[in-house]
Amino acid sequence: MGKYTALKEEAFEANMQLPELGLVLFTFGNASAVDRDKGVFAIKPSGVPYTTLKVEDIVICDFEAKIVEGKMRPSSDTKTHAVLYKEWDKIGGVVHTHSTYGTAWAQAIKDIPIFGTTHADHLIADIPCAPPMKDEYIQGDYEHMTGYQIIDCLKDRGLDYNEIGMILVGSHAPFTWGATAAKAVYNSAVCEEVAKMAHLTLQINPNAATLKEALKKKHFERKHGKDAYYGQGC
Amino acid sequence: MGKYTALKEEAFEANMQLPELGLVLFTFGNASAVDRDKGVFAIKPSGVPYTTLKVEDIVICDFEAKIVEGKMRPSSDTKTHAVLYKEWDKIGGVVHTHSTYGTAWAQAIKDIPIFGTTHADHLIADIPCAPPMKDEYIQGDYEHMTGYQIIDCLKDRGLDYNEIGMILVGSHAPFTWGATAAKAVYNSAVCEEVAKMAHLTLQINPNAATLKEALKKKHFERKHGKDAYYGQGC
Amino acid sequence: MGKYTALKEEAFEANMQLPELGLVLFTFGNASAVDRDKGVFAIKPSGVPYTTLKVEDIVICDFEAKIVEGKMRPSSDTKTHAVLYKEWDKIGGVVHTHSTYGTAWAQAIKDIPIFGTTHADHLIADIPCAPPMKDEYIQGDYEHMTGYQIIDCLKDRGLDYNEIGMILVGSHAPFTWGATAAKAVYNSAVCEEVAKMAHLTLQINPNAATLKEALKKKHFERKHGKDAYYGQGC
Amino acid sequence: MGKYTALKEEAFEANMQLPELGLVLFTFGNASAVDRDKGVFAIKPSGVPYTTLKVEDIVICDFEAKIVEGKMRPSSDTKTHAVLYKEWDKIGGVVHTHSTYGTAWAQAIKDIPIFGTTHADHLIADIPCAPPMKDEYIQGDYEHMTGYQIIDCLKDRGLDYNEIGMILVGSHAPFTWGATAAKAVYNSAVCEEVAKMAHLTLQINPNAATLKEALKKKHFERKHGKDAYYGQGC
């Protein structure tokens, strides 16, 4: 077994979850997993269909997005993943999809308002939509700067990446992260479901109010922090 | 075979129907079944994915939500189930989901109007949306008080829990119940379908009128009461 | 092989197509097939889930909706089927579903406008929505009168049942028919798809115009009548 | 192996992808593949369900839409395919579907605006909606003229068929093409997904702006042209 086999398998499994959860059409998405000790992450190769993807196709890169191991070209979004791993040292996985409802909100350039407990179970802020990138960043090192677009948006909003695992990049689509690649995939599915529910909520009631503070706090704390009582505590 | 095996199997089967019917994403839901003679109910353990759930994982609790048997922590919504079993002595099962359309109506804090016979086949009132809970109840014994939020809403509306198997809790999501756990699951699926149809009805005709009295009565009585002629009479 | 076995099989196959095509939830629908020579039709028993339905459960009735053969109670909508077979001597099958989009239009009490060639490939009128039934018909022989509600609506609109295989009954849901039970099922699926497309068309363009006459004529005649050139001519 | 077996297989595989990708109901669609050396294309027979379609049913036609080989009648849209192959000598496949969202935009007679990078990854113009055809063309050689309706629309907009693989025909539905039949199928799925996202974008934000020039250029060039870096470069 190779030095990076376990990491490649983790990235492979996370990638294969994306079509299973209905989050990607064709190759419109990618997942990665990091190994902090080795200073590398494993990511999907670019443009390879999920139906033919194999563990050994997964590419290993360092945090400068340089290929460390692998015969294929890594995802065209590799530099975005690299920046997030480099800047945020507590994340273990990153996912990017063009999932339908999340992408529609990104195209509408609107934050997804927090309307209910489904949302608050996962984060207690609106899901932020970073503004579309500036022309000089697009024409420059685009994917690298996409990472900083995400990081800067969280900073501007005063949000902590440990408490919010998802963002929309305006005119583009969602990016999510988490303690593991599997958790980042989970956050992608949550983002899509919450995006759909928020859209329907506004269709049913265009004046829908956002969630009251007490419910935000209660639901988030049920699942997170020292007094969490959701799950099996492991 | 253990004392509670049959009850656990009933709860297990009901829980497994939830993902099959498309009513839950990941662990966003739970079903329970009661044994009135033994004074206990069986409920899903908290945060366990449906893909790995086993009959023996099901937790047995009493009507004070105390664990009677089981190695896992029960659903974080256990106290809500307990209150409903305690107060409503004719129900045999309770289900809670965050199904997409039902949750959107709950987030919109709107009753689901009765627009057609699909709805009237199951209940002849609008599906009520209980108001979001008061802050003191949220900060106090939240899940326990959620049960009373449901019970009080029905009382305020003059509705009988035997004639209406579903409710929305404002800003949260649907809860349903029935004579058996399977019937409570059935009601969850009906609630979701009726929620979707009502949303579409208003999209097509924002001035859509609710169902006339004669059709409400006819369709409900086809399926319920002494002159019912739907089904095989068993 | 019994006298009605082939007919029961035809009805059974048609019924089993309904869940497969996503047109029914639980038992919300029924299909029947007629044998004109024997003066009977075969219909789904009432309230029996599709997952357990067997050929031998299918009930044989005459055109007065009297049971001719079968141990189970026939569909609660049997009298509607009986009236249609009795009055329209060229139809071979009838289907009733509560399919989501068709039912939403019925609940909105709106005809489905003919917006495109998908619609015109099958019928060249708007899909009519019969008005909700009068109270005296609802309180009287309801399902029998539902048949006449459908027949009268077509008469009022000057429509020929041979050229239009589908209708909505206001506040209720779609009914469809055809030369065979399979064709009636096909029409149910077409009705649902056309209902969804028409809804989306109006969402995208609230002022969308209905189809021009030349396209209505062309598409309908491609598939129907003596100069049809769609299909294999058999 | 017959002279056209490989071509028939290519067309067969492309056609079978259409129901798998959820792009067709029943027989509402057709795919073809061309062999430029032999001057023929292979197309689905008319009205044959995908569930029973076999490789040997595929019909071989020349660019005048005359049958060269095959026992069945070719798709009623064969002349449209023939015109596109004749006029556009670099395309290898053509697909026509009545996919739900693409058809809704066609029925709304609206171009699909370019709102995001998902769209720009594939084409950098709005997806054009050709006007509904003139009456004399409908009454004349309809399917032949449909081909010219598509070609003329691109000309009028100054668009190059090599850079845009999809169009809507007003009041009708999408047509797509590509270097191979498989690529034309891919474009049909992209068209449907982009159509759905654009609809949702406008639902969420009726004033949504179209994509900025820098992002259009960047995303299209990531995937196309000499500096493309998406995929494996093969």
Automatic annotation (TrEMBL), chains A, B, C, D:
<keyword id="KW-0413">Isomerase</keyword>
<dbReference type="GO" id="GO:0019323">
    <property type="term" value="P:pentose catabolic process"/>
</dbReference>
<dbReference type="InterPro" id="IPR036409">
    <property type="entry name" value="Aldolase_II/adducin_N_sf"/>
</dbReference>
<dbReference type="Pfam" id="PF00596">
    <property type="entry name" value="Aldolase_II"/>
</dbReference>
<dbReference type="InterPro" id="IPR001303">
    <property type="entry name" value="Aldolase_II/adducin_N"/>
</dbReference>
<dbReference type="GO" id="GO:0005829">
    <property type="term" value="C:cytosol"/>
</dbReference>
<dbReference type="GO" id="GO:0008742">
    <property type="term" value="F:L-ribulose-phosphate 4-epimerase activity"/>
</dbReference>
<keyword id="KW-0119">Carbohydrate metabolism</keyword>
<keyword id="KW-0862">Zinc</keyword>
<dbReference type="GO" id="GO:0016832">
    <property type="term" value="F:aldehyde-lyase activity"/>
</dbReference>
<protein>
    <recommendedName>
        <fullName>L-ribulose-5-phosphate 4-epimerase</fullName>
        <ecNumber>5.1.3.4</ecNumber>
    </recommendedName>
</protein>
<comment type="similarity">
    <text>Belongs to the aldolase class II family. AraD/FucA subfamily.</text>
</comment>
<dbReference type="InterPro" id="IPR050197">
    <property type="entry name" value="Aldolase_class_II_sugar_metab"/>
</dbReference>
<keyword id="KW-0479">Metal-binding</keyword>
<dbReference type="GO" id="GO:0046872">
    <property type="term" value="F:metal ion binding"/>
</dbReference>
<feature type="domain" description="Class II aldolase/adducin N-terminal">
    <location>
        <begin position="9"/>
        <end position="199"/>
    </location>
</feature>
